[in-house]
Amino acid sequence: MKVTGEQQLVDTNYDQPHAGMQQVVASVEKVIVGKSDAVRLCLVALLSGGHVLLEDVPGVGKTMLVRSLAKSLGCSFKRIQFTPDLLPSDVTGVSIYNQKTQEFEFRPGPIMANVVLADEINRTSPKTQSALLEAMEEGNLTVDGVTYVLPKPFMVMATQNPIEYEGTFPLPEAQLDRFLIKISLGYPDMKDEIDILSRQEKGHPIENLQQVIDLETLQELQKDVRKVYVEQSLREYMVKVATATREHRDVYLGVSPRGSLALLKASMSLAFILGRDYVVPDDIKQLIPVTFGHRIILKGEARLSGTSVEHVLREVMRNVPVPISRDRERQ
Predict the structure, then answer these.
(1) Which InterPro entries match (predicted)?
(2) How far apart are alpha carbons 131 and 134 in whole angstroms?
(3) Smallest Cα–Cα separation from 2: which of 37, 29, 34, 27?
(4) Cβ 54 vs Cβ 65: under 8 Å
(5) Whole-number Å distance between alpha carbons of 3 and 36
(6) For the chain, which end, N or C, has fewer CB atoms within 10 Å of the first or last residue's CB respectively?
(7) What does the pLDDT read at residue 125?
(8) DSSP annotation of 14
(9) DSSP readout, 188-213?
(10) Strands of the sheet with 77-81, listed across from one edge
(11) Cα 63 to Cα 26: distance, rounded to the nearest angstrom
(12) Is 144 left (phi over 0), alpha (psi -120 to 50) or beta?
C-alpha cells in the first residue's frame, strides 16, 4: 500500500521530531530519494519490534532501502535471495557432524542478523516461507530440537513482486499477519528520478553511507517507545475499526487481534518519532492502511465487482467515529 496524499506521516501541530530518528531518515535519503514517509514507516516497525513487507515492481529501490537502513543503524545485515529451490535449512541453518569432536555443530543461516532482507519472498515455496514464522513472532530459532536466540534488535524486511507476476507464491495469511506493516514505494516523480541519476552518475551513494546511531542507543529507544501514553478512547477506536473490518459485507477475513496490537505499537512508535510522548487520533488514522490492509481478505464476489481493500478501509474509517483526544492529559 502506497504512502501518499492523506497518508503522509507529517506532524504539524506538536513537538519537534525525534533528532536521532531524523538523522536516520536523512541518512537513508542520501540513497533513497523522496521516500521519507516509507523510511519513517520502516523505523516505526523497527521501534515496535515488528517486520516490514515491501511490495512493488522491480527496480524502485526496495532492496537498497533495506541495505541503507541497516548501514545507517550499524546493524548486522544478511540477505536471503528466495528462489523456488530454496530449502528451510538455507534460511535457518543446519547442524553438521564434526568428526573431530564427534558432536553436531550448528552452522547458523542468514537469519542470524539484526536486519534480514528476505528478497522476493513470494518466489519460494510456502514450506520455506514458513521457516521465518518462529523467528518473526518469537525472536527465537529452533533447529533439531535446540532453540537459539536471535540477535536484538531483529527485523525481517521482506520484498515481493506483485502477486500477478509469473512464478510467485502468495504468502499464506499466517505469514502476512506476522508483518507489522506493508508498504509500496511506487515510482519516483520526475524531479526525484533526475536526482537519482545525478547521484549515481559516478558511483553509488550507499558506499559512503555512515552509521548515525549505535545498537545500544537503538535498544534504549525501543524501550522508550513503550512509555508513550495511549488514551483509553483511542484504544477503543482501534478495536472498533478492527471489528468493523470483520463485520463488513465485502470482507471474508477481517483484522485479527494481532492486527489491533500492531496498530497500537505502530501508533506509539510514530508518536515517538514525531517527538511526542502520547498518541493522537491522526497517528492511528495514518497507520490504519499500512497495518490493516494486508490482513484483510475480500470475498470472491467483492473482488470480481472491483472492490478493493483500500475502498473497504476508507468506508470503515468514515463510519467509525474518531474520538476527541485530550492530548496531554494523563491518568
Answers:
(1) ATPase_AAA-3 (IPR011703), CbbQ/NirQ/NorQ/GpvN (IPR050764), ChlI/MoxR_AAA_lid (IPR041628), P-loop_NTPase (IPR027417)
(2) 7
(3) 37
(4) yes
(5) 10
(6) C
(7) 83
(8) S
(9) --HHHHHHHHHHTSSS-GGGG----S
(10) 77-81, 115-119, 155-160, 52-55, 181-183
(11) 18
(12) left
